[in-house]
Design goal:
Helix content is 44%, strand content 14%. The longest helix is centred in the C-terminal third of the chain and has 19 residues. A hairpin with a 7-residue loop joins strand 15 and strand 16. Bound molecules: adenosine-5'-diphosphate (ADP) and zinc ion (ZN). Its cofactor is Mg(2+); Zn(2+). Keywords: ATP-binding, DNA damage, DNA recombination, DNA repair, DNA-binding, Helicase, Hydrolase, Isomerase, Metal-binding, Nucleotide-binding, Zinc. One of its GO terms (cellular component) is cytoplasm.
Amino acid sequence: MTTDALEILRTTFGYPAFRGLQAEIIDTLAAGGDALVLMPTGGGKSLCYQVPALLRPGTAIVVSPLIALMQDQVAALVQNGVNAAALNSSLPAAAARALEERFLAGELDLLYVAPERLMTPRFQELLGRVEIALFAIDEAHCVSQWGHDFRPEYLQLSVLHERFPAVPRIALTATADEPTRRDIIERLGLAEARLFISGFDRPNIRYRIVQKRNARDQLLRFLEAEHRGDAGIVYCLSRKRVEETAAWLREQGRDALPYHAGLPAETRAAHQARFINEEGVVMVATIAFGMGIDKPNVRFVAHLDLPRSVEAYYQETGRAGRDGLPADAWMAYGLQDVITLRQILASSEADDFHKRIERQRLEAMLGLCELTTCRRQALLRYFGETLAEPCGNCDTCLEPVATWDATEAARMALSCVYRSGQRFGVSHLVDILTGKDNERVREFGHQRLSTFGIGRALSATQWRSVFRQLVARGLLAVDPEGYGGLRLTEACRPLLRGDENLELRRDPERQSRKSAARRG
Ligand code: ADP
Ligand code: ZN
């Protein structure tokens, strides 16, 4: 079987060999089996159904929600001499009828159809009269409400299998988190399908997540030390921060440009063009920047703010090092990130279901930040792929993280939150613990609390690290009103009762001393 597939790959598509799991997937389909394929964008999903479409008798039906992509693919196939066509709403009635005729005559190898078109009675009737090679369901995550691309029409696609149980199906997506995967399997009836996950690892990207102190300075030091004259992207959460950071980097002599949705279209286009065509431009951007940007020699992607999900982090960092040469994914992350994102979430208009989803996504992202083991292993695990050994090319591999028994410290912190009434923010709580006798402490009479000054053994920085990790682990919750007040959660009970111990990351002190020396 594979020799035929290889023959098609070479003669029709002009490639010498299959990549990754392509050959196995193609064999599965050619033999009549179902497949669920999870591969990142650019991983080579299309060939997984295009080759079997040519191997099997009949016409392959490809369901795709994106008309523009459909047209690109069809054009490329036709250029390679494949009989492919697309049926969608952009086609005039007469042309659609002519296409139906070709389909009925069995002249097509592949027919791309928009999901809403596929489910019309007219098209369903046509399907019954033609030999079908396979059904390919592209962008399969559209069936899941977990995704941001939910399409109700996709829910009806399970009908295909009920009507044509003998026709093999392949569902494909780049969105591979566990809940989405479960939805796809359940809603498309793919429990029997073979699961193929591959290609998510980007071994040339070095992942690093550092503790945020003075993010700008840290960024500049990172750029000076490792990326003088390199092109890269710096992601920030807000437009304001994009503007400020870009202006500041320019003052420091870097060729930095801002990019966000609030800039005039001409400015955005001009900045994007400079980034792509010139060397050494640093694009400071919101997430509005990046879709469809294919610059191979982006040497670094830096995050000054925490992305909302592991998926977003993976996608954004994935813009680095497309040329396969060493590249950096660098992020500064701190307590305020956790607080801000928790607040944005709590105050969002979304319904409870979507809030819960967003919260779980954020938890996973925080988990990645606070990790003490290999980041790449965790990242790939999130996508369902396994990496047997620690990667050796992430910060936790290169500099193993020390942990410490923070049980006592955590109890002090939690007790301080409780005794001060569960409404104060971190700075004030740290002042109480370290025994700062300042105006605000006096105003609330907190110098009389039993927790006043009990934490003098740790520095303010260390206490902030403790609070950050307690919030990140969900032992403390942030009040949604905007002042960053902290309160206890159910999850901290075992610790307070003494049933549980807590190991925390020991954040490196080194950098802070260095920057302190610089300031002094
Ligand atoms: P996806 O749909 O997963 O985003 P594509 O199917 O568009 O990815 O493939 C991405 C690119 O990789 C395309 O340019 C494609 O031609 C190329 N490609 C895919 N498989 C192979 C292969 N076996 N050998 C060489 N190039 C390949
Ligand atoms: Zn690693």
